[in-house]
Every structure is written in structure tokens, then in C-alpha cells.
Amino acid sequence: MAKEGLPFILVALAIAGIFAIFGLWIGVVALVLVAAFLAYFFRDPHRTVPANGDTILAAADGRVTRITNCDDGTLVSVFMSPFDVHINRSPITGTITDIVYAKGRKLPATRNEASYENERNTLIIEGEGVTVSCTQIAGIMARRIVCWPKIGDKLERGERFGLIKFSSRTDVLVPAGYKVTVNIGDHVRGGETIIARIIS
Questions:
Q1: How far apart (Å, rounded) are the C-alpha atoms in residues 161 and 174?
Q2: Across-strand partners of 175?
Q3: Which of left, alpha, beta for 166 (phi over 0: left; psi -120 to 50: alpha)?
Q4: Alpha-carbon distance 18 to 100, whole Å?
Q5: How many whole angstroms from its chain centre is CA 103?
Q6: Cα gap 175→181, rounded to integer Å
Q7: So what's the pLDDT on residue 177?
Q8: Average pLDDT by consecutive 10-residue portion of the chain (200 residues)?
Q9: 3-state SS record for the chain
Q10: Is the CB of residue 49 less than 8 Å from the CB of residue 192?
Q11: Which residues are catalytic?
């Protein structure tokens, strides 16, 4: 489980303990269920990272909601529901050359405008012959974007780099020279599902 979830769980259990002292058993049961869901929400399962270095991986678990061609490549958006794993993982092996945080609105994460209007945090990851932009985007329920590494840090393919608390979205900008291998509606797994392959 991600350590960021521990305070939420402890608060729920502490309040449940207070309710138990006063015999408020319905509240106890409700809060224990909330704590169990939070432990499930902040889970951090092991992932098997594909060995092929000529591919780009999903940065998060969730459903592909948008695939859009743009000047710099192809934007692939993945929406994370409250039931998806919210750990974010690096799409490639590379060095973080820039991190840009922007305050913004709390529009639904499935809307296209969320890419440039919502609160977001963009990592530029420069690998061998490829540079990928990966953006963490907050949604209606998301309250905080968490990013652990700093500029200059190196990430391995599939390595954890952060999370977004509660439902949210990630955008990966696939550069020219790569073919997107997923479709809208597909469910992907961060650090495991290949979303693009180099065009040979």
C-alpha cells in the first residue's frame, strides 16, 4: 500500500474507536468499511514490466478515454476511477529534464479540457532517442497530486513516480515515430500495458 494512504486510514479507524466507546456501532461499521476501501484504493501491486525497450508503457491503470493526434505526437489519456490503482509509473527509461506544475480547475477528468484547465503536473522524461511527456491531472474528487522524483532523477520503465489521490487521469504524449497500440475504451495497467511501439 502507498504510504500516502495511511493517514486517511488511521483517521477513519480512530473515529471508529471513539464511536465504539459510545456504543455507536452503525458508525463503527461504516468507518471500518471506509478504512477498508481506503486500503484498497491506495494499494500498490507488483507489476511485470515488459522487457522490450522500443515501446512506451501506460503511466497509470484505467480506461483509455482519448487518443488525439497533435503537432508533437499523439496524446493518450487514461482515466482512473476510484476503483483503479492510482500509482503512476514511468512510460520509458529516462532522465527527468523538467517538471511543470500548474494550478487549475477541478473539471471532470474525462473531459478534454482537463488537459489544459485542471490542476496538473507534467514530467518530461528523456530517454535514449525518445522523449515522453507524462502529465498527472486532478479531477473532481482528486485532492492532491503527488510526485516523488525531482529534475535530474532517472526513472526506469515502469518505476513508480507518484500518485493522484482519488479519481483522476494521466496524459502521455507519444512522440512521432511511434504507433499507438491501444484503442479508446481499452483498460490498461500502469507500467505493464504497452500503449505504443516504435515504427520500424
A1: 18
A2: 73
A3: left
A4: 42
A5: 17
A6: 13
A7: 92
A8: 80 91 90 89 88 91 94 93 91 97 77 79 95 90 81 96 84 95 97 93
A9: CCHHHHHHHHHHHHHHHHHHHCCCHHHHHHHHHHHHHHHHHCCCCCCCCCCCCCEEECCCCEEEEEEEEECCEEEEEEEECCCCCCEEECCCCEEEEEEEEECCECCCCCCCCHHHHECEEEEEEECCCCEEEEEEEECCCCCEEEECCCCCCEECCCCEEEEEECCEEEEEEEECCEEECCCCCCEECCCCCEEEEECC
A10: yes
A11: 168
- The CATH number for 55-198, chosen from 3.40.960, 2.60.40, 3.90.1200, 2.70.70, is 2.70.70
Please give the single-letter amino acid code of residue 1. Answer: M
Domain ranges of the chain: 3-41, 55-198
What number of residues does the chain have? Answer: 200
**pLDDT value at residue 143:** 57
- Hey, which residues does 62 pair with through a beta bridge? 188
Buried b (16+ CB within 10 A) or exposed e, 133-154: bbbbbbbeebeebbbebeeeee
Cβ atoms of residues 113 and 151 within 8 Å: no
Residue at 142: amino acid letter: A
Entry pTM:
0.86
Lookup: cell for 8? 486517511
